[in-house]
Amino acid sequence: MTATLSGRGLADGIRAEVAAEVAELTAAGTPPRLAVVVATADESSAWYVRSIARAAEKTGIACSAVDLGASATPEQIRAALEALSGDPAVHGIILQTPLPAGAVVEDLAGAIDPAKDVDGANPLSLGRLAAGLPAFAPATAEAVLALLDHHGVPLAGAHAVVVGRSTVVGKPAALLLLQRDATVTVCHSRTKDLAGVTRSADVLVAAVGRPELITAEHVAEDAVVIDVGTNPTADGGLVGDVDAGSVTGRVAGLTPVPGGVGPVTTALLLQHTARAARSRRP
């Protein structure tokens, strides 16, 4: 029997805590504000930004999109990030992807003040995370750990395999798992015998961005699988990086897509914004 490791209840709880904190901060004269810098005409990105704004509104966080247009230059994007970093009324900054041709997120994210880097995009944030120093982790990677904790999955001594090595999910998720005393293996496009490696996992995190890559041959019986993938389908739906139909009945637990990692990620972005605002209180 495969348990569905939903993220919706966890996300609801986080948002309720955030709403209470935001009310306290606003009453004290520090209303939290989040800014999302957008430089794309991609409709899926626009949908995501709108979903963040709706979630923020429900918690009392002011959220604004700084839309620079799909033809924005790297210099314009950097200038916007620097201006927001210097604005004392803004507490959280997100640089939305994709970016226009010639704009590299790793370069531009360095313009975000680490204290306002609520999605852990600045390389300094990742470096502090690797060193075990205080920093905002990328929210999607943190959502992986939050879901595992919420559903009572033990991590100390477990073998965790992360498929994907991006700085957005794969690498930070591996670092967070190491901090929890898991033994971590990171797989990628050059990994030999991927299925052989992933079958050894007690906890498998699929974060590679390839639809339904992970099938029954990739998982051990009773493994816990966190599916980070959100791949659009021709009919407008979403599928994960895991072939849910193939692994269901074999693994102990699986996050749904949608309704797993996604809601928790958005809730954590709001939590990070509230914490950033609290740290800036006079």
List the helices and strands and how they pair.
Elements: E1 3-4, H1 8-27, E2 33-38, H2 43-59, E3 62-67, H3 74-85, E4 92-95, H4 105-108, H5 123-130, H6 139-150, E5 159-163, H7 170-179, E6 183-187, H8 194-198, E7 203-206, E8 224-227, E9 231-232, E10 238-239, H9 244-247, E11 253-254, H10 261-279
Parallel strand pairs: 1-11, 2-3, 2-4, 5-6, 5-7, 7-8, 8-11
Antiparallel strand pairs: 9-10
Helix pairs in contact: 1-10, 6-7, 6-10
**Alpha plus pi helix count:** 10
Q: In angstroms, what separates the terminal alpha carbons?
A: 52 Å
**CATH topology (level 3) name of the largest domain:** Rossmann fold
Q: Given the C-alpha coordinates, what overall shape results? A: globular
Could you give the order of strands across the largest sheet?
A: 1-11-8-7-5-6
**Rg calculated over all Cα atoms:** 19 Å
Helix content: 25-40%
CATH homology-level superfamily of the largest domain: NAD(P)-binding Rossmann-like Domain
Uncertain residue ranges: none
Strand content: 5-15%
Q: State the CATH architecture of the largest domain.
A: 3-Layer(aba) Sandwich
Number of strands: 11
Count of spatially separate domains? 2
List keywords for this structure.
282 residues; alpha/beta; Rossmann fold; six-stranded parallel sheet; three-stranded parallel sheet; globular
Write structural notes for this entry.
This protein is of the alpha/beta class and 282 residues long. The chain folds into two domains: 85 residues, 3-Layer(aba) Sandwich (Rossmann fold), CATH 3.40.50.10860; 124 residues, 3-Layer(aba) Sandwich (Rossmann fold), CATH 3.40.50. 39% of the residues lie in helices and 15% in strands. Helix 1 runs parallel beside helix 10. The longest helix is centred in the first third of the chain and has 20 residues. The termini are far apart.
